[in-house]
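Q: what sequence does this backbone want?
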């Protein structure tokens, strides 16, 4: 799957929720996500622009754990990249497996996320520990489909919501790393 994603820094969750409601977007879930990011023993993911994480999600009393590999970004305007996910039963065992074969845990990223659906868009409002509020809009595509039309649709939706600046092509992990480096 190719994930076409654009995120923007926002000022206020409530204003955005009002605009989403006016558009006809519907909120369908709220989650707490704890992401454990790993680096490879073979290549430096920071250099190759890849990511490997274990995400533990809690929503409505249910917990799910997913291992995700994200390939290098395909372009510079969005976070378009190949993504492979697998549900696992136990986050601690998944962590132990990765560490035992040489992967090193580099950082934990925690966030509260509200999901909205509008047409073929998945929209999330993200309250990330240590960062300002962000909004992400994404469209998943099959591997062989061109991403440029989906990317244009995402930017058009941002404009419709009133967001024309504050776009970010780096991950929350990278944003937190930059913040620490300052």
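A:
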């Amino acid at each position: 799957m190719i994930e076409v994603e654009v995120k923007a820094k926002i000022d206020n969750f409530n204003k955005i929720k009002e605009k989403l409601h006016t558009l006809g977007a519907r909120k369908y879930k709220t989650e707490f996500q704890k992401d454990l990011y790993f680096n490879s023993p073979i290549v430096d993911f920071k250099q190759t622009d890849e990511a490997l994480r274990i995400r533990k999600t809690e929503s409505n009393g249910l917990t799910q754990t997913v291992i995700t590999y994200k390939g290098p970004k395909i372009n510079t305007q969005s976070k378009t990249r190949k993504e492979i996910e697998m549900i696992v039963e136990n986050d601690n065992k998944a962590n132990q497996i990765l560490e035992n074969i040489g992967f090193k845990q580099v950082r934990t990223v925690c966030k509260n996320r509200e999901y909205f659906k509008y047409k073929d868009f998945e929209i999330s409002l993200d309250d990330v520990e240590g960062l300002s509020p962000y909004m992400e809009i994404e469209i998943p595509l099959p591997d062989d489909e061109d991403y440029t039309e989906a990317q244009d649709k995402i930017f058009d939706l941002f404009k419709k919501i009133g967001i024309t600046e504050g776009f970010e092509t780096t991950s929350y992990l990278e944003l937190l790393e930059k913040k620490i480096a300052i």
